[in-house]
Amino acid sequence: MREVAVAWRNGLGALLAGLIGFGLIRGRSDVGQLAPGWSVTAGVLLVAALSVGAAGAFCLLRAAHGRPSARRLSESDATGRPLEVEDHDEALASARFLRTGIVLTCLCTALLVTAVGVTWYAPPKDPPGLMIRQGTATLCGEVVSARRGTVVVKVDGVAMTVDLSRAEAVTPVVSCPAASPGTG
After folding, report:
1. Strands (E), the chain
2. Which of 26, 53, 111, 148 is the most exposed place for a label (fewest CB within 10 A)?
3. What is the DSSP string of 152-176?
């Protein structure tokens, strides 16, 4: 049983090492680049993967190496049970820990793959914008370029050049508010 557990531990460890290497190389390096809700999702998935992976590793180590305690070598233990029965019980416990470790390690793998997928496919955070008020009109969008006295702002996918000398207010914003009547 111990040999089987060691083989599973080594195989699953290699699988996880490969996935972690793949995720570190291929995933976005900064979850702060993701839209706010998605960055939290990626973080929760990574914490869950770490927790489940640690529990899986503990189970696999327990299955491979047994209980982390010593026992007296005598014909029977303090309860009068023969050593053969104790050995059989320990083999059954190791098999249970092995199965649990395999399931947890597979769950950890799924969580890691999902977290990396979120970093790949989640929408990016909106770029910062500029809100410009001119009379009754308010424009808000991503700054494309700026020159002396003018700025080009992308509003709803359309680049607009704005003369800043006519602006009553220019405010940097983290993201533009949703369009409403009389704006944009």
Report:
1. 129-134, 137-147, 150-155, 158-163, 169-173
2. 148
3. EEEETTEEEEEEGGG-SEEEEESSP
DSSP symbol at 127: P
Q: Which residue has better confidence, 33 or 142?
A: 142
Helix, strand and coil in the chain, % to nearest 5:
55, 20, 25
pLDDT number for residue 103: 93
CA separation for the pair 86, 95 (Å, rounded): 14
CA-nearest of 135, 128, 178 to 153 is 128
Burial 166-183 (b: 16+ CB within 10 A, else e): ebeeeeeeeebeeeeeeb
Evaluate whether 171 touches 130 at the Cβ level (below 8 Å): yes
Q: Where are the domains of the chain?
A: 2-121, 129-173
Q: Are 52 and 108 in contact (CB under 8 A)?
A: yes
Token digits of residue 108:
């950890």
d(CA 158, CA 79): 82
Query: What gap in Å lies between CA 86 and CA 71, rounded to an integer?
Result: 10
pTM for this model (two decimals): 0.61
